[in-house]
Design a protein that fits this description.
Distance between the termini: 71 Å
Number of helices: 11
Number of strands: 7
Helix content: 40-55%
Largest sheet: 5 strands, antiparallel
Oligomer: single chain
Radius of gyration: 44 Å
Strand order of the largest sheet: 3-4-5-6-7
Structural class: alpha+beta
């Protein structure tokens, strides 16, 4: 089950009691809780903090630093999708929180990032590659060895990063990856030629591309090997560009790396804000949808109950009509038998045994269909009192 807590609330918790105790509340391990705090830039007490505090010694509580750009102000434990956590229907139907606010203007965020990034440099001789770039070079080295040991060569298995352009691409990417790593930017490189690139800040995925400039533009042989363009894309696989930097004759990409690194981090913050506002609108829509559905269910239940009662009334009325009709038929039979008995008696001045037998049968049948005698027909309330003549 997904659990969520505000960043400052979690900070207060981990400084009010040991991490292991707090972790038990969320049904996770203390290691998992510490990792979550680290991702959210929440400092935790060191190993001897609580022992010193119990002994009455002086301890220092580390202040909560500002939220890292691109990182959510809500810490989530358990499975959660990109923008839409696994909210239950009860949570969505509950009180809607106020619209999110971001007290720090985006320009102040950019200034803070610029101070933290400093100067991003790209050297021609790299001594320590970023892990993602190092893996690419190691795979390329394996291809070189395989090609050297085999007389057969296949284009799909040839080394990729041997040209000057590709070497330059890797140096630029290395400098950028190392710079954004200061903000917990996690790099994902896909594809044999490292063309699908994503930098993740918490749950914000910034898709980037570094490719040769479009055909038709000629490089300046005095400055560039081949013009390159670095782009921040709308999303993975998208062709829409949010921002881009291109080689210029007097200002190659190597001189624009600081601006690129800063904008990458700021873009993650912009995405976070856009997504948070979008998610709030989504929650409001879901709450309205659930309320509409609940109202529709309520009205449907009222409609069905009204229909049921009307149907029941019609059935009771139909039963009443039938009972009244049966009563009239029974009375008609009695009247008919009495009239026949009178006529026969007047004509013959005697009672015929066969007629009496027939009359008995007719009157019994009249009583059988007469609801006033049987007191048994649909819609008649149950009568428990003793009626006259029942004794």
């Amino acid at each position: 089950m997904t659990k969520r807590i505000e960043r400052d609330a979690l900070y207060d918790l981990v400084w009010s009691e040991p991490v292991r105790t707090v972790a038990a509340r969320f049904q996770i391990s203390d290691v998992a809780l510490k990792k979550a705090c680290q991702r959210a830039s929440i400092p935790t007490p060191d190993r001897g903090y609580w022992a010193k505090r119990e002994a009455g010694k002086s301890v220092t509580k580390i202040a909560l630093p500002p939220r890292s750009p691109g990182h959510s102000n809500v810490v989530t434990f358990g499975h959660s999708s990109y923008w839409y956590p696994n909210w239950t229907a009860e949570e969505l139907a509950g009180p809607l929180p106020p619209p999110p606010k971001f007290p720090e203007p985006i320009e102040d965020v950019r200034a803070r990032v610029e101070r933290a990034v400093g100067k991003v440099k790209c050297t021609t001789k790299v001594t320590g590659w970023h892990p993602a770039i190092r893996k690419l070079l190691e795979k390329d080295e394996d291809r070189k060895k395989k090609a050297a040991s085999s007389p057969y060569s296949f284009s799909w298995d040839e080394p990729v990063f041997t040209t000057d352009v590709e070497q330059r691409r890797l140096r630029i990417l290395d400098a950028i990856f190392l710079a954004v790593g200061r903000f917990n930017g996690k790099v994902t490189v896909r594809g044999r030629e490292a063309r699908d690139l994503t930098i993740t800040f918490d749950r914000q995925h910034v898709a980037v591309a570094l490719d040769p400039e479009q055909a038709g533009r000629k490089p300046d042989p005095a400055k560039l090997i081949a013009p390159l363009r670095f782009s921040i894309l709308r999303g993975f696989g998208s062709a829409e560009v949010r921002a881009s930097w291109v080689d210029e004759a007097r200002r190659p990409l190597e001189d624009q790396l600081t601006s690129i690194a800063v904008e990458l981090v700021v873009d993650a913050e912009v995405q976070l804000r856009e997504g948070t506002l979008h998610h709030h609108r989504w929650r409001a829509e879901q709450k309205s949808r659930l309320e509409r559905e609940e109202e529709e269910r309520r009205l449907e239940a009222i409609r069905k109950e009204t229909e049921r009662r009307e149907q029941e009334r019609l059935e009771r009325l139909e039963a009443l009509f039938k009972a009244a009709d049966d009563y009239r038929r029974a009375e008609d039979i009695r009247s008919f038998v009495a009239k026949l008995a009178q006529r026969i008696g007047e004509a013959e001045n005697r009672r015929d045994a066969a007629f009496d037998q027939w009359a008995t049968w007719a009157l019994e049948d009249a009583n059988r269909i007469d609801p006033s005698v049987t007191l048994n027909f649909p819609g008649l309330p149950k009568i428990t009192a003793e009626l006259p003549g029942d004794r």
